[in-house]
Amino acid sequence: MITDYYKLPFQPNKLMSKTEHPKCPLPESVAALIHLIAISNFGDYTPDPSFGCEIWEHDFENISDSQIYREKLRFSIQESIEKHETRLSNVKVGLQMDQIDYRMNQRRIKSRIRIKVDATLTMTNETFTYTDQFYIGPLSYD
Fold first, then answer.
1. Which CA distances in Å does 142 have to 64, 77, 106, 107, 108?
2. What global pTM score does this model have?
């Protein structure tokens, strides 16, 4: 049974210098791949255009029905995790969206997307939980 996995981001310079690449346990490896799926747009990984999720397809759009949009994103993330992260089973994805008043130089509204993944690690039959959040769609207003 494999107990150590390569840590992301992958560092090819370690291989070139014949240095061992950093490793991590199974839950950390799975979490890193889920994060990579969530931050990737469809088509970013050219060998498999289905890798990624739909979050970034709508980054700057004004959403008319947030409930339909939220469910569409949740389904996209869940479908991609089920397809690409085969070390998980019984995947359930929860998604929350909030409007955040984000201030730096000027006032902006951003959407905060929080995802929570509950699943089972297939190899060990352990419960696995992962949470992450992203900010998208800076819409300026005065």
1. 21, 33, 8, 7, 8
2. 0.81
